[in-house]
Each structure stands twice: as structure tokens, then as C-alpha cells.
Known about the structure:
The complex is a heterodimer. Chain A is α/β, with parallel strands linked by helices. Chain A is 33% helix and 22% strand. In chain A, strands 6, 7, 8, 9, 12, 13, 16, 20, 25 and 26 form a ten-stranded parallel beta sheet that branches. In chain A, strands 1, 2, 3, 4, 5, 21, 22, 23 and 24 form a nine-stranded mixed beta sheet that branches. The longest helix of chain A is centred in the middle third of the chain and has 16 residues, at 347-362. Mean pLDDT of chain A is 95; it is low at 80-92. Chain B has twelve helices and 17 strands. The longest helix of chain B is centred in the N-terminal third of the chain and has 14 residues, at 13-26. In chain B, strand 3, helix 2 (39-52) and strand 4 (55-56) form a beta-alpha-beta unit. Chain B is elongated, with a radius of gyration of 23 Å. The mean pLDDT of chain B is 95. By secondary structure, chain B is an alpha/beta fold. Chain B has helices at residues 13-26, 39-52, 61-74, 81-87, 98-101, 105-110, 147-158, 170-179, 197-210, 227-238, 260-265, 344-354; strands at residues 4-6, 9-10, 30-36, 55-56, 76-79, 90-94, 120-124, 137-140, 185-191, 215-221, 244-245, 252-253, 271-276, 291-295, 307-310, 320-324, 329-333. Chain B has two domains: 4-60 and 225-354, Rossmann fold (3-Layer(aba) Sandwich); 71-221, Dimethylsulfoxide Reductase, domain 2.
Amino acid sequence: MLTRLAGGHIVDPANGRDGVGDVWFRDGRLVAPPENGRPDETYDVAGMIVMAGAIDIHSHIAGSNENLGRLLLPEQRYAAFEHAGHVTTAKGAWTTAETGRLYAAMGFTTVVEPAVLPEHALHAHLELADIPIIDKATLTVLGNDDFLLNLLRRREGGEAVRDYIAWTLATSRALGIKVINAGGAAAFKDNVRSFSLDDVVPEYGISSRAIFKALQKAVHELRLPHPLHLHCNNLGIPGNVETALATIQAAEGLPLHLAHLQFYGYGKEGPRGFSSAAARLADAVNAAKHLTIDVGQVMFGQTVTISADVLRQFNARNGARPKKWIILDGDSNGAGIVPYAYRANDFYNAVQWAAGLELFLLINDPWRVFFTTDHPNGAPFTAYPDILALLLDRSLRAEWMTKLPKEAIEVTTLPSIGREYTLNEIAIMTRAAPARLLGLRDRGHLAAGAIADIAVYAPFKDKAAMFRNAAFVFKSGELVVRNGNVLHQPFGRTLNVHPARGRAIERRMRDYYENRYGLSPDFMTVADLAIGRPDPFETVPCLS
Amino acid sequence: MAGAWIRDKPATLEAATKEAAKLLQASRMPLIAGLGTDVAGARAAIALAQQIGAVIDHMHSAALLRDLDVMRESGMMITTPNEARLRGDLLLLVGAGLVETWPEISARLFEKSSVLNSRRIVWLCPSNGNTEAHSDIETIGNNPRNLPVMLAALRARCAGHAVRNDTPDLRKIDALASELPQARFGVAVWSAAENDALTIEMLCGLVKDLNATTRFSGLPLAPGNDAAAVQQVSGWMTGFPVRTGFGRGDPEHDPWRFDGVRLVDTGEADCALWISAYHPMAPPWKREVPIIALTNGLDCFDRPPAVAISVGQPGTDHDSVEYLAATGTLAFSRVTSRANVMSVADAIGGIAATLPVPSPC
């Protein structure tokens, strides 16, 4: 079937389009406007904004840790009914089915779950398989695992690390590798209570810096499309901007993605010894062209922080709102689940909110700054439309700032920033750039050949309302959302990479698991047959 | 053994499926209970519950909810069986039921670790016979009724508080209280099958206290019949654990209201789909309601169920994803030659497809 979206304002930065035109697609793919072609159906989208489906590179939507969060917080779900008709909290996004529906309603068609522990990969993929409409991908977490730390301790060459990464990706069916407070979770098992870039993991004698650099290099050499995805040390701590700046220095020109940078944008200035250092961080990012970052914007309201940075979560446990928390020492990383309510009248939370917006607005290249809340850690993903509105409208930001503690805003640069994002920049940040960062050549744009993942927004004065309920969303050419209502729930696929690896690694991993755990490593393998849906995976090619 | 019955008469699978759908369709308050099944069976059962407005409950909900009550009231520090095995230099085993809940516990936890030089094991109030083969395990107390007060005393002594002089085994508890903070990575192990929620809460509080100065964690053992996997599936599909109902459309969770045995015995539930794929087993309730049984054969029933469809054992008769006690994760097992049996997911899929209401998934 040939479909034409007629007369919309096409915003497709990857192909340099920003003006009125048509979009054509057939059998799930975009096509060039056919000569004398008659569409089988036409949607009149005149006056509306047409973009590719949005791509979220970092949102904790599935897996054993998220599910522990659900079990820890049954009351979150009930609280959702207090916000009838306006779902802005984690409460409404709590099941796999709702996750897919809510993302689709906003025009998102691909989402990356960024923290899957290798031993729980099957669990994560089972949850992802139950998330309707959107396509998915995972990043597997390494960097606190005994096998890797031993390779580094023994100074085994890069080939061993590359083979191990390739084996892990194949076993866990992931699109890339993430490292979370490299070495911190391992050190915490030895009763270490703080862990920075040059601290050394007891018993292994390896620094956090050495771990992340070994992984960064190996990921680069394996030609994985997505660079190493790094969650730095010292998340959330006053003065941690120094850690982030040192980490940026340490990247030494190789590609690196820094996750939820807002949580590292803190200085020690001001009357409370806590200030936004986002402006310094933005300068450093602007200068480091090999670097990409996502923001991890904070928004006010109840949420739950779910992180494999178990050391950080342990140290944050006494701030839990409500007062209950889970700390899990895992086989490698583990997890901490600490519910939290960001409050507009809280000095620290207001600084965090402003620091995130400063990063968005002061990093001048929209191809290198990515749109996230680190869902659900900074805010649930359902808060995205409100954040987009803040980026598009400086008067809205000014209005919000009048409601926040004055002394908090004074330790930020936010009031001095006049920049407003254009729709083209929004489309870069949420479509074109994520597709490029993840190596997804047929997503994030609207040229012929691309997957017909398309979001159409009706223009409203209230930009948040515009982005919350897309007028039309097409997933692989199928109309799935109309005026924010989900019409169909097809099931998408999960994207993964398969870099080549040496043969010896299979034997070596088998021996290692037998010796260390008295087990075969097969329990970690994510088989197609285990997923319970047909054709669950799609392979993304490595870089040539 | 493959087979299907309507009452006690052999029937074709098609006829039994149709009869099951008819009963569920006619029910004003259907219950899906037992849930002794794998991930695919749980997914199908919960999707069916959503489709027909049923309640879901597991045969081991009571144990699951005791652990969960503690977790969602005050939180928990937990670890994995592998970490307990590797790093646990002091294992604090608590109460009865550990071997019964996890028959491999001795092989997985009590043997020497590949990274530790030595391991100390202390068992508070074990079941009779549980420690016989392990002379190096120190036991304290033998009367499980004393366990709550012993744990309270242990936690108080660790915190430097005074306790009553008549506390059972006080001398040993004092010695243990001075030993626990010396552990490098201690692990407390318990089974909720044999401990009440307050005992578990006291133990979890002790673990948290110990982390002020050292590392200590907990290892709750999951009950059988794949309860832990069903709990996980319920979590992601409904946002809640088992004992969740769809009667009003959206899922609602209430451990008392959606207790399957209570629902049948009070007359609230008027039809039940009973699932026990691991063992032939009849439901525990007393009142009679039409039962659609997914288990193996009819022998376990005093009165024949309204409909019965034999199902195979997950992981033995057909491929399955189940909770693996050795790792605490969901894992896939591939069966090389599939037995000629239905899986729970197949059986429920058939029933769901026969219902006029479309399935949500």
C-alpha cells in the first residue's frame, strides 16, 4: 500500500529538509515521490509538523532492577489515578504495555534500555518483548566483573578484552557496552565507601580510569557503532564536576558517550556548598569533539531512582522518599533502588533542574547532546513534553524559575541564557543524532529507504501538549497512534550487534564459569526461542 | 501423559478447550490460581486474566508476600546465590525450610569457595537433620518458636543494647554478636516458607545495621513451583506481584482481597482455572466451584474437575524459561526431544482464542 502524508512541515535535518512537502511510504519503508504515483491513502497533514519517529538512547524501561522497583513501590501505581488524564509521573509508565503505549503516543519509535547486567539479559529481553509498538535495544554493563578485572590485572592484551566484549554482546544480545562507576561496585563488596577515577579496586589493583579506558579502546577497535557509554564516578556529589572534567580529559580523543551528565554538573560554591557547574562542563563538552553526552534532566515530582551504581545508591539510601530502598550486591554490578521525590521548593533539586537545562542550552552542537531524563532517575519519560517546551521557550523557563528558591537559581547561569531550541534542533537531538550515535542508518530520518517510523504533531501554543499527544504516529508504516490514542499494538524488534570474535573465547568462558561458579555460562545466553515472539531480533552492522 | 477430560470423561482437546472457555465466559468472578508454571505459562495466564477480568494468585503467594511485605515496608539488602557462594565468609542461616526450599543449598553454599580460604557457617534453629552431614556448622537453638526473640536479641546485642537475661542461648548469641561485624562479606540466608514477616524484618534490619561498618547482605530463598518467575512476570505485566485482580479493568493488587483460597471459600469466585504443571496437585480450597485444571492427569483430584487438560512439566517435557535457584535469574532450558504434551501456554492460548473477547497481548 502506498501512503502519502500531504502538505506537512517536514523537519528532517539528516536530509536537510525544513519546509512544507510530502512524505511517501510503502510496505513499511519510505519511498521517493513516485512519478504519476497515486497513493492508496492520503493523510492531509497541512499545518502539522512531520518528523521521523524519535529515538531515546537512555531510558531504564526493562529488566530485573526495574522490576524490583515495581515490586518495591506498589503504591506508585495507585497514585496515578490522582492525576487522571494527565500522566506525568512514573506511576503511569509502570508496566511493559503502558511503556510502549506512552512512548508511542509521544512519537517515539525506538528506545534503548541502557543497563542490562549480563546474567539478567534474558529477563530484560523478555520484558522488552512485552513492550508493544516501539523497537528496542540494550546496552550490557561491564566494568565491575571479575573476568574483565582479571584480564586487566594480568595485563592481557586488547584482543582478550575485545573477544570478551564480543562474546558478552552475543550472549546478551546487546547493541553496545556501558560501564557504570567502573570498579565501584566491585570495590563496594570490599567495604569501600567512595570511589573516584583514580581509586583502585582492592584485590585487583586496577583503577577506575584504567577499566573505562580499556573498554573504550576495545569498543572502538571492535568498530561497534555506539561508543562506550560511560556512567562516571561520584554521581550526585557536590564538587563532582572535577571528576567529569577529568574523565573528559582521560578520553584522549577517542569516541566516548557520557551518560546523564547533569548528575555530574555540581560545584561546591554558594552558601550551601552546592552549585551548578554545568557551564564549565558545557565548555569542556563543546571543546571535546569526540564526545557525546545525554543530559538526565531532573523534573519535579515523585519518581524512583534505579541504578546499577550500587555504591552511589547505598550512599543515597537515607535520602529515600518514601523511606524504603533495596541494595543488591550482584554477580558484577548489582543495583540500588531508592525512591525519590524531586521538590520544587528544595534548594538542591532546583539546582539540579537548572543544571540540566544549562547543559541543554550551553552545549552548542545538537548532534552531541542527547535528550534524556535517565528515566526514571531524573524524571519519568512521560515528562519529556514538558522539557521540550522548556527548551523551546525562554519565557516558560523564566516563569518556572519564579517558583523555585531564589538562592538556588543564583548558583546557576540559567537566567542569563536566552537560547531557544528550533524544531530543527529538536529533530536533530531526538531523531537524527541518536540514529547516527547508535549506527541505525534507516532510522531517525525521512529519506527513501528509511523505516517508515513517522511522528506528526499538530501545532499547539502549548508545546508540551503538542509533543505529549502526537496527531499521527506510524510504526513501520502502520498507523499506531491518532491524536495521542493508541490504535494498534504491533510488537517491534530488538536491535543488536554481532562483532566477530576469536574462537577460543567460548572455551575460555566455559572454563571460567565452571571454575569460578561451578556452572555452565549457558544460563546467560539469550536464545531467540526463549523470547516467545516470532523473529524478535534485528542485527545492526558494525562500522566498516 | 497427554489427555483432556470433561468431568471424568475423556474428551478431545478441542471439546475440553471449548468447555473451558464456556465456563470462564459464564463466570462472574473467575480465579486463575496455582500458577505452578514457567514464564510462557505465566504470560499466557496473566494475559487471559486481563482478557476476562480474573484474579491471579500463586500457590506460594503466602511465602512470596512475606518477603515482599518486608521489602516494600522498609527495603532490603540482598545478594545473589553466586556472590554468597563466592564471597560469603560468614553465612548466617536462619530457621527451618532451607534445604526443603533449595535442595542444592549444601552443594552450592556450604562447600569451599574458589576465592575464600575459609568459611564460617552458623545456623539459627535449623530443621531436624539439616546439619547432620555438616559437622563444621555451628547451630544455635533448636526451637523455631524462639527464633524471633533470638534474632531480636542478636540485633540488639550487635547494636550494643542490653537484652533480657532469660533470652534463649544468650551466651552463644553474645558470641555471635561480636563475630558478625568481623565478617568481610556476611550473608544471611532464609526461607519465607518457614519464617513470619516480623522475623524476616528483624533479620533484614540486622543486615542493614551491620552495613554501618562492614559488608553484609541477605539471600532470601525462592519458593518452588517457579513462584519467583511468575512473580517477575506479574511485576512487568501488571506493575504488581501476584494476588492481583482485573475485575475493574486496570490491575489492582491486594494480598487479602485477591487471596485465591479465600475467594473460593467465601463464594466470591465462581470458577477457577487451576495450574500446577510441576506436580499433579489439586487446589487447597474447600468449597466446590467449577475447576478447569491444567495439571497432569486426574488422579490428584477427589472429585473430577469440570475440565482437565494434561500439561507437561516445563523444562522437562518442553522448552521453558524458569527461575534458576543457583543463579537467581531467569534462564532458558532447551528440551532436545519434546514430549507429546501441551504446555500451559499452549493450553491457555487455545482457551483465550476461543473466547469472544480479544486478547490484549
